[in-house]
Fold:
Amino acid sequence: MNVPTHTLRLTMAQALVRYLAALRVATDDGREEALFGGVFAIFGHGNVAGMGEALYGHRSELPTYRAHNEQGMAHAAIAYAKAHMRRRMMAVTTSIGPGATNLLTAAALAHVNRLPVLLLPGDVFVSRAPDPVLQQLEDGGDGSVSVNDAFKPLSRYFDRIIYPEQLMTALPRAIAVLTDAAQCGPVTLALPQDVQTMAYDYPIAFFHPPLVRFRTVQPDEHELAEAAALLRKARQPLIVAGGGVLYGQASAALRAFAERHGIPVAETQAGKSSLPWNHPMQLGAIGVTGSPAANLLAGQADLVLAVGTRLQDFTTGSHTLFAGAQLVSINVNGFDALKRRGAAVQSDARAGLEKLSALLGEWRSANGWAERAQRHGSEWRETVDAITTRRFVALPHDGEVIGAVQRSAADSTTRDIVVCAAGTLPAELHKLWRTATPGGYHMEYGYSCMGYEIAGGLGVKMARPDAEVIVMVGDGSYLMMNSELATSVMLGKKLIVVVLDNRGYGCINRLQQAVGGAPFNNLFDDCVQGGSGMPRIDFALHARSLGALSENVKTIPELEAAMARARAADRSYLVCIDTDPARTTEEGGCWWEVAVPEVSSREQVRQARQVYEQDKSAQRKKL
Structure:
């Protein structure tokens, strides 16, 4: 006689992996696909026995990818989710100790950027029988503490699984946070190594979770009415498009809203690519790294409609750029919607724009405002042409390199995805990169984390295998983290990596001098050196040692030829070019608050402090 079995005896780790493998998400076209694209894992004591065995058993349904650095693999997982507009994601598992703490920077990055990643660090024994184990942090005042407690302020949801059955409560909560438009961010489930291996009789129904559907947060009618009333009073409104436009799949709604109501659009770093680069209402980048067109009209605007943006200081010019304008925010996250005491519409970007447009009817901005925006936007696009095609005999600067990269493919504005994160390049790319496709610009600028670039490029390529993923990175960021270039070769996920070598931290060197400081400890020439002097680094040779193809070039024409070879290559390809550490795009930008010492023995600093105090007087006081 066969007795029906309603439970399945599994270890906690096996149950966790089985649950993740079973999760499916509904796509916009009615299909279903796995919510998790895989798990990045670096095994060590604390996860190799429990999680390692569990992942091996489900390797066909939930692929496991080996990486070279825990922070790097978490960056790749985060970039994967960003490239999927937060509709799909990955998990990351590590050993205890340094394997776990290497994830902390990535957790902060995901939290700041509101991006989903499931972090599964190993933890010490709950039984405490073998304490202290290798790599265990002991706290003389709290026996329950481990290094994983450091994840608590960096996670949108944190739990430590101390009983196998606890998984049935923790996992659904974790997935709910990861897939919630407002709460989205990193989730950490700390996994003690002994509990990973403990067995429990799990209900079979647990492994048939409901289909994940992304809910649309609808706007409140009273908030909409207030926003519409404010817009009708405005004569010169401006839209600031943030990352929420892309994550909310609201690009078409944004375009329709701008066209119907005659409102120009400026884009944040996260929101760039919301509107095609050549759309008539497109003003380009806004803020500290913004275009002259966007910043000029921001200063003249009487109302700013901020859609899906955190309004960080690079967007607002440290609250000086549109300090006198009425602010209306459409944001799915109530915390962000209430920034700067603006009128808040807590809503999905697409629903908010569509319903606000319906309330406005045929209302349009004042006569001449849209035409003025179109004129300035067109002039800026002509300026971009000039900047990106200049060819100097001396060392090129970043703008000229960007132009060469874009010219290397006829369809670069639709097929290429550029990836970057830190240094001078975010400013130059924000102004100068052209894309006609939502997601064609992948910038991690919420945390601006050096070392994200190559790992992030790998995650983007895993999410968008048909795209040409171009990582643009300075020598400083490359040296900080480059090991996932080897992972890209191992996985057959081709990247084109363009290294701009200015022999140090050129961006911070310029900032240092702008606030009155002397050149110090940024460029190699200004650092303490031993008898051998500054290092002569051959980045192409280093890339070849990691399995990639590579070459060094000296001029813009040589770069264009190298890009053609890189595009034709069958694996990751690095091209390195020396660039000028002092020269940048002069056009555009606005004030950014960097505090200058109030007292100094150096005259340059005292003068910079006077300028700082004068500039700060224009700062918006309405906090």
User: Anything to note?
Assistant: The first strand starts at residue 7 and ends at 11.
